[in-house]
Design brief:
It is built from 4 helices and 29 strands. It has 366 residues and is an alpha+beta fold. The protein has 2 domains: 107 residues, no CATH class; 240 residues, no CATH class. The strands form 10 sheets. Strands 7, 8, 12, 13, 19, 20, 21, 22 and 25 form a 9-stranded antiparallel beta sheet that branches.
Length: 366
Amino acid sequence: MTSSMYAAVAGLKTHMNALGVIGNNVANVNTFAYKASRYTFDEALYMTTRSGSNGTEEIGGNNPAQIGFGCTVGTIDLDMSTKIFNTTGRGLDCMVDGDGFFVVGDKTKFGVNTQAELNGMSLSRLGNFEFNSGWLTDGGGQVVYGFLNVSNPDQNPSFSTLLTPIRLPYYNEDTKEILMPAESDDEENPELLDNEQALEAIAEANQPGQEAGQHVPYKRLNVDTLSVDRAGIITAVTADDIQVVIGVIAIAKAENPNGVTHDEGRYYKALGGAGDLRLTTVGGAVTYPEIGMDGQPVNPGGGNANRLVIESAGDTELLNGGLESSGTDLADEITHMIVIQRGYQANTRIVTVTDSMLEELVNMKR
C-alpha cells in the first residue's frame, strides 16, 4: 500500500461524513426551528521526508519536504442565526427573533436560582406551546419555564424573579376567588409555591377515607382563551370574562449560542463551548435587582435576589402567532452535495489508479 491509497481512503471517509451533514440538513428542510450544520475539512498528518534548513553565508537553505495523508472533518458548526417567521395563527405559538432560547424541563423545579441548575435545563427554539392540565408545555411534552405573576388579578402584574414552570393559578369553585402563586419565606431554599391555602384545601379534600364524590373546592383556573403577546406575557380570560396575567416566558441567553450541544431532537444543552446561561425577558417585565455598593444585587423587598436575571434582552424580540422556519437553505445544500460527490469521485480515482500501479508492480515478475 502506498501513501496515496491511505490519503484517498481518508478523503473518502471525510467526504462521506460531510455528506451525512448535508443529508441531515436536507432531511430537516421543513422542520420548524431546525438549525443547519456546516462542515469544514482539515488536513491530516504529514510525513516529513526531509527537514528544512536555513541558509548560510556560503549556501542556500532547503525547504522541508512533506507528504500528506489525506484529510479529516475539522469542525461541524451550528448556524443559530434567526430564520423566517412562519405564521400559524395560533395564539400561543412563539418565535425568538434574535439570540436566545426557551427554557423547558419537568415540573419539579420551582425556583431555579443557581448557575448549575440553569445550565442543566433544556433549551429550545421551537415555541409551539399549549396548556395541558394547567401547565404550559411545548410540542415535545416538556414544561415551559418563566416568571409567574404573584399579584392579585385586579392589580398590576408583579412577576417573581424565580424561574419556575408556567402554570395556571388555582381558583375556588364556590367563591370564584383566584389564588395566585406566592413566594416562600425560606431565603436559603427559595421556591414559588401555589397559594398554600389552596394546596392545603386540596390535600384535606383528598385525604384517604373521604366520602365518594366529596366536593373539591380548588382547581386549576378554568379559562376560556389564552394568548401571549410580543413581550412574552401570557394572559388568560376566564369563562366569567375575568382577565388574568399568568406569567411571562423566560428567554435564556448563552455566552456563545453557536456552542450549544444537541441533546435530543429539538432540544439543546449549554455544555462545554456554550458558556454560562443568563435569563431575561423581552420588554423588561423581569429585571435584574439594583446593584449595591458591594457589587451585589439588592432586593429592597427582602427575599432572594436572583443573580441569573439580566436587565435587557438586547436586540432579541418575541414574535407571536407563528414559528421559526427551518435553517436549511436547499439551494446551498444541493450545491454542496454536488461538490462533495465530485470530490468523492476524485478520491475513488486515486484508489483505482494506485491499484493499477500496484498491479503493474506485481506483474513485473512475469
